[in-house]
Amino acid sequence: MDVYKEKVEYLTPFLSARIIRVQKTGNQEMTRWNIHKETELLLILHGGMDIYIEQTGYPLRTGDVLLIPSNIMHRSQKHHDEHDLIYLVLQFEMKQVLDRSSMIYMPYFFNPLNSLTSLNHVIMVNSTLRQKISDKIQLINVEAEKKEAGFELAISNSIRSILLLLLRSDPNLNERRMGPILERLLPALDYIEEHLNEPLKTSDISRLLNMSYYHTAHLFKKAIGMSMVEYMNYKRIKRAEILLTIHHRTVSQAAYEVGIHNLSHFNRLFKRWNDSTPKAFQLAMRGPDVESSSEERRPTKAPIDPAF
């Protein structure tokens, strides 16, 4: 499978963001999988396209806005019609955009167990919110084109304004915000993420947090709803999904690279989280292109055949 690990070239070295205008004509094949560290917002100016974020498809048309969180697999396909497709792509590095005054909201935008993709439903059903975000994106595009004095400030402020709009429009704000217990566990979550391919011991996690095993286990269960081992396995399976989908790994290679050397155990864990074997998941994600639906407006489960 062809995959593009995009390296985003920012507008300036001091502004971790860029905006580009894309135009496509005629019938287009499904793009290869794409993944990058930047958060992305799409605004459809004209025409239609299907975007797939992992296994969920979003049919988009003129005026629609879509949020793609960082480090999430996605791909796209222009609708099969005679209309040109024109859209704006805004990409920015969240941690660089948030300043000191807004850093307290970092956990909201980086909750490891609550993806920002769920905000797409909020954007889809709230036309006022969608229009406000659209206006901000177009303002950013004008600033990027003109590059007048202070355009960096204008773009940064507009991006933060979009984040504020999303935060205040989120009906699940309290659940998405990371509580103090989860924040206390952040060093452990980061450690697990960085060492998934190695043997992970719960005793090492407890030592890292300078807490007893029982206290650490209690906090994991209370804050995340999983035991330490369950969370480690969850993160390993999520990493394996990427390896299987975009890096051409065999099932055994993927299992080994996420630190699970027993293939039967890996298959059982994978099926527990995906209701599918690793091989079936891999084949489905490589399936035939999905035709766009001109009637469907709500997100759909890909068959499994995502976009972008």
TrEMBL record:
Keyword Ion transport carried by entry: no
Region (Disordered): 285-308
Source taxon at top rank: Bacteria
Pfam families given in the database record: AraC_binding (PF02311), HTH_18 (PF12833)
Keyword line: DNA-binding, Transcription, Transcription regulation
Record-linked Gene3D superfamilies: Homeodomain-like (1.10.10.60), Jelly Rolls (2.60.120.10)
UniProt xrefs under InterPro entries: AraC-bd, Homeodomain-like_sf, HTH-like, HTH_AraC, HTH_AraC-typ_CS, RmlC-like_jellyroll
Keyword field contains Transferase: no
Ranges where the HTH araC/xylS-type domain occurs: 186-284
PANTHER family assigned: ARAC-FAMILY TRANSCRIPTIONAL REGULATOR, HTH-TYPE TRANSCRIPTIONAL REGULATOR EXSA
Name used for this protein in its record: Helix-turn-helix domain-containing protein
Organism: Paenibacillus shunpengii
